[in-house]
Amino acid sequence: MSTILVTGGTGTLGRHVTERLRADGHEVRVLSRHARPYAVDLREGGSGLDEAVAGVDTIVHCASSPRGGDEKAARNLIPAARRAGVGHFVYISIVGVDRVPFGYYRSKLAVERLVEESGLGWTVLRATQFHDLVLSVLQGMARLPVLLLPARVKDQPVDVTEVADRLAELAQGAPAGRVDDMGGPEVRTFDSLARAYLRATGRRRAVVKVPLRGAAYDAFREGGHLAPERAVGKGTFDEYLAERFKTGVPRR
């Protein structure tokens, strides 16, 4: 069995990847800003990073933040991986990063290019939005008495554990380059997802669809972030909500 480093290994995706790899018998190191013994801020680099990657066969790079810093983190991690002789670098990206001119997507695309040009053996998987992220967005919107949604936008949420399974599978194989995208089982309008959330939580909110402006909104409206031809996920958003709120108390 091999030694695998998972960056962001305590996060929404990374912790599931870590569990899968350990269950398969691999030695897994978890790197995050607060996880000992490999507590490293990738944006800062430093000697702790070299220690974390020393003797590692594969890196699964899950660490990411919409608040920025992904490119800087990659510019520190990739040279460290080269110095350590890492044989396989696996990166999780997002469907549509090359089609939607959204700031976070641009950053993810830039990291993809850094990985491709790294000189390392590499694999990149793009996935659609996780159920957890869609729920988080809806919870934030539901703080208001009216649920304001972007008009004519669809989504294709996927179960994070299924993406973790796929990443773990890729990490245990040979470098494969850009692999097929991974999308959730259903393409749904955002208002249908919102109404499913309201039903599951017992909330009552008026749902208002608001047309927006801008190139990013236009690209989302046109489905640039979707992969209907790669609807390989199994778990639906309704199933996720049913499990997530099975012991919940209806709220107003």
Descriptive report:
The protein is an alpha/beta fold. The chain has one domain: 3-Layer(aba) Sandwich (Rossmann fold), CATH 3.40.50. It contains nine helices and ten strands. A six-stranded parallel beta sheet has the order 2-1-3-4-5-8, sandwiched between helices. A two-stranded parallel ribbon has the order 6-10. A two-stranded antiparallel ribbon has the order 7-9. Strand 4 (88-94), helix 4 (103-116) and strand 5 (122-127) form a beta-alpha-beta unit. The chain starts with a strand and ends in an 8-residue tail after the last helix.
Q: Layout of helices and strands, plus pairs?
A:
Layout: E1 3-7, H1 14-23, E2 27-31, H2 47-53, E3 58-61, H3 70-84, E4 88-94, H4 103-116, E5 122-127, H5 131-141, E6 146-150, E7 154-155, H6 160-171, E8 177-178, E9 188-189, H7 190-201, E10 206-210, H8 215-221, H9 237-244
Parallel strand pairs: 1-2, 1-3, 3-4, 4-5, 5-8, 6-10
Antiparallel strand pairs: 7-9
Helix pairs in contact: 1-6, 3-4, 7-9
Organism: Streptomyces caelestis
Pfam families: NAD_binding_10 (PF13460)
GO molecular function, one term: protein-containing complex binding
